[in-house]
Amino acid sequence: MPGIKYEDFLDLGYTPAESELVCTFHVEPAADMDMEDAASRVASESSNGTWAELQVEGSITDLSATTFSIEGNEVKVAYPDALFEDGSMPQVLSCIAGNIMGMKAVERIRLLDCDWPEPLTTSFPGPQFGSGVRNEIFDAGERPITATVPKPKVGLSTDQHAQIGYEAWVGGLDLLKDDENLTDQEFNPFADRLTQSLAMRDDAQDETGEKKSYLVNITADTNTMLERADMVAEQGCEYVMVDVITTGWGAVQSVRERCEELGLAIHAHRAMHAAFDRIPSHGVSMRVLAQIARICGVDQLHTGTADLGKLENEDTVGINEWLYSDLYGMNDVLPVASGGLHPGLVAELIDREGTNICIQAGGGVHGHPDGTRAGAAALRQSVDATVADIPLEAYAEDHPELKVALDKWGTE
Ligand code: CAP
Ligand code: MG
After folding, report:
1. Which terminus of the chain is more exposed, N or C, with fewer CB under 10 A?
2. Known catalytic residue: 269?
3. Does domain 130-409 have CATH number 3.20.20.110?
4. What pTM was computed for the model?
């Protein structure tokens, strides 16, 4: 076999095989490097190459990736299926988003998009329920499901937290959600919170006649997450919440496997995603992170608020469309809109994202001048009004909780 050099990874006449994973990168070459050189190094370093020309003795499996397209700064690379371990997202990412992110040959590099081939994709389970949760767990019909996260994020006692949950459920919301940095601290231990919240949940269900559930944050080391998932199922809850970026995809995969046995849905929070996706010319796009989350098998995923609300967003609508799109029969994912939302934004949010979503508001519920129950009622009223095609202001005329929320926050 001849030496393996960088040039061997570039073939602009190449057509990828159907079984190959195709990745699209934004590449800005280093000052002393031309585009073709930099693009060849992307394919090399992310598959089987290194910086030195190699003389390989005997025959080895050829696992080279191929850079087959360069258009401006957009580079497409095809990876052979045999490069990847089936069903291992950490291994896939060590290739396509690994050392290349720090190569001196590039000034900036961002993994923008992946075209996932069938053999690799179907070696993962995908979501167990996906957006089906809206009607398999709840009876939401055509409306979005709704959630709230108690604020302040941390510091509430277990009693206070569970009481807020009760108020929110009775006020009309479907889901109570833990905040990302609330797990198992002394002021509000996991086991007590789970038990007390579910007792409140049962009361709220009896009072309202509606199904209610709880997104309890099991995020921790993998073994602890699995133990917590067992507790959640034993106590009759339908969901676990996992912070998927901070735990890592290997841990998400382990949780997904256990949730299959337990019949639990997975709510994926994405704290730290912006470390990968906020700088538009570098890192890993939210689009790709969302693809990974679906393939690993989460059922609900935060994807932003289509530019409404308090946080920076990357193309929420495009990401949601990908999460709903056909992927070898794999279940879809329910997008979660969250971050600075309040009842006055709901009509515009549904206009931008549609109704197959979960709407989550923390401050926009508990910051209501008349408290959590009224805030929850206002959020639910805004959803019901919008789905019934009634303008929020008109609906507010005979829905005082919504009226107060609109007076406080307006509709922008
Ligand atoms: C929202 C939230 C969520 C963010 C996450 C918060 O609270 O609980 O964690 O929405 O961001 O802590 O900020 P508010 P994203 O409703 O009070 O803003 O959904 O973009 O992943
Ligand atoms: Mg939060």
Report:
1. C
2. yes
3. yes
4. 0.97
